[in-house]
Amino acid sequence: DAGVIQSPRHEVTEMGQEVTLRCKPISGHNSLFWYRQTMMRGLELLIYFNNNVPIDDSGMPEDRFSAKMPNASFSTLKIQPSEPRDSAVYFCASSLFVGPLYNEQFFGPGTRLTVL
Amino acid sequence: AQTVTQSQPEMSVQEAETVTLSCTYDTSESDYYLFWYKQPPSRQMILVIRQEAYKQQNATENRFSVNFQKAAKSFSLKISDSQLGDAAMYFCAYRSMDSNYQLIWGAGTKLIIKP
């Protein structure tokens, strides 16, 4: 069974360029999360989707960041324009939400973004 | 607001020995979940073990076990018979029962295994 798939694994770009990160959640999962991990701030939740609808985007740093989930099997995180301070590892995670009880989040391998 | 503290930035242990990683948290809630995640050099976050606060029995998964002290708000991870493959960053995380998704993360502990 394939886990969460993210692409690309590594991205190097120049300041001002548009960056698009992609995620394919585990088939059958109805919740999707985008996280950012940096040395300074640790792991931060950027946005949470449930049934393709954004539920909590309070962690999105600013308007340069946007996320979409057009269907249950695909999501994108876009940064436009990118800045050096956006350099980080971006993780996508998915889970099957069946109620208020525990539901494990499964993480993808992450995309390491470097903005020069 | 809840917080999670991992006071050990780095720990090292001899292969085959036992090591304990510390985690404390602050909450006013009585029901919640606690987790330990492992992040090896491959970067992927992997769930190691979870504990429901309403359960008094400490969770165990093979060589991994926890010491859950609810009154002290402590949740340490014990790794027995350490193996080279255990080398990784270990993160402690908290989730409120009121939230079905929001994880509060500790800063992590880097575990080094000495051959």
Task: Describe the protein in words.
The complex is a heterodimer of chains A (116) and B (115). By secondary structure, chain A is mainly beta. Helix content of chain A is 0%, strand content 53%. Chain A has no helices and eleven strands. In chain A, the strands form two sheets. In chain A, strands 2, 4, 5, 6, 9, 10 and 11 form a seven-stranded mixed beta sheet that branches. In chain A, a hairpin with a 2-residue loop joins strand 7 (65-71) and strand 8 (74-79). The model of chain A has no long low-confidence stretch (mean pLDDT 94). Chain B has 115 residues and is mainly beta. Chain B is 0% helix and 53% strand. Chain B has no helices and twelve strands. Chain B has strands at 3-5, 10-14, 19-21, 24-26, 32-39, 46-52, 60-61, 64-69, 74-79, 88-96, 103-105, 109-114. In chain B, the strands form three sheets. In chain B, strands 2, 5, 6, 10, 11 and 12 form a six-stranded mixed beta sheet that branches. In chain B, strand 7 (60-61) and strand 8 form a beta hairpin. Chain B starts with a strand and ends with a strand. The mean pLDDT of chain B is 94.
Task: Record keyword descriptors for this entry.
heterodimer; A: 116 residues; mainly beta; seven-stranded mixed β-sheet; 11 strands; globular; B: 115 residues; six-stranded mixed β-sheet; four-stranded antiparallel β-sheet; 12 strands; 0% helix
